[in-house]
Design goal:
The chain is α+β, with helices and mostly antiparallel strands. It has five helices and six strands.
């Protein structure tokens, strides 16, 4: 007779991960680009509208109510984040080494920021809302299910972006917070 003991801990942390990784991407771009990013339309949208307004509206509520409100508030933004399931050698870089992708579809509409958590890597899309066509593309992206994203690999060093001429294609599968 064997005494096999198996312990399973199950907790759905998708919502908490979404919020934490959005904040990490926002702070990473602020560290990299400074107030130019923070005061941009995209920086304001992520930092104030998505994260800040939720905090201000919920800071004095009970935890159970905050969690209910978070599900409703952040569900709209669930497409902004995906785990990198099988990272390539080049994906091992993060913004700490200056790597960022800029998403393009006739206009630059988002930064793709890589955030590492322990042994996992995540891609977070942060909007670039500098013109109406970029904002419209970002809204289309948020509402889409499965998507393919074209993005240009860029290296940010000494305040300058150096971009590859070729566009990479990323599959961005549909996800649910349910």
């Amino acid at each position: 007779m064997t005494n096999d003991l198996q312990i399973v801990v199950e907790k759905d942390a998708r919502l908490a991960a979404l919020v934490s990784l959005l904040k990490a991407a926002h702070l990473t771009l602020f560290e990299m680009l400074g107030y130019e990013y923070a005061l941009s339309a995209g920086g304001h949208f992520l930092g104030k509208t998505i994260l800040g307004d939720f905090y201000l509206q919920n800071r004095d509520l009970a935890k159970a109510e905050v969690l209910r409100n978070a599900k409703d508030h952040f569900d709209e933004f669930k497409n902004m984040l995906r785990p990198i399931v099988v990272p390539s050698a080049t994906d091992q870089e993060t913004l700490s080494s200056g790597l960022v992708f800029i998403c393009e579809a006739a206009v630059r509409w988002a930064f793709m920021v890589f955030i590492r958590t322990a042994d996992r890597l995540h891609a977070v899309l942060v909007p670039i809302l500098d013109e109406p066509r970029a904002a419209a593309q970002f809204v289309r992206f948020l509402r889409a299910g499965d998507a393919q994203i074209q993005a240009r690999r860029c290296q940010f060093k000494d305040g300058i972006f150096s971009a590859n001429s070729a566009l990479d294609v990323f599959n961005w599968p549909e996800v649910s917070l349910e």
